[in-house]
Write a structure and sequence with these properties.
This protein has 79 residues and is an alpha+beta fold. The chain has a single domain, classed as 3-Layer(aba) Sandwich (Glutaredoxin). The protein is built from three helices and four strands, in the order βαβαββα. It has a four-stranded mixed β-sheet, with helices on both faces. β1, α1 and β2 form a beta-alpha-beta unit. The protein starts with a strand and ends with a helix.
Length: 79
């Protein structure tokens, strides 16, 4: 099983789409919501070099935004 973490905000449409995609594929993930959390915002910037969300980490590999093709590739999901 892969280690999946997604950085989100409350109002991010792409974050909601990514989480729904994970649920549709029965992929367990850890969500880190950075809304109003300065420490988590700093962590996000340190790890990704940006503040935009979603930022998804799959087994240490970073995906900026909701990139279904990369998610499928990293999780070995056949589309």
């Amino acid at each position: 099983m892969s280690n999946v973490t997604i950085y989100t905000t409350n109002t991010c449409h792409w974050c909601h789409m990514a989480k729904e995609y994970f649920k549709s594929k029965a992929i367990e993930y850890t969500e880190i919501n950075v809304t109003g959390d300065m420490a988590k915002q700093k962590e996000l910037v340190q790890k990704s070099g940006q503040f935009g969300v979603p930022v998804i980490f799959i087994d240490g590999k970073m995906i900026l935004g909701f990139d279904r093709d990369k998610i499928n590739q990293y999780l070995n999901i056949k589309s």
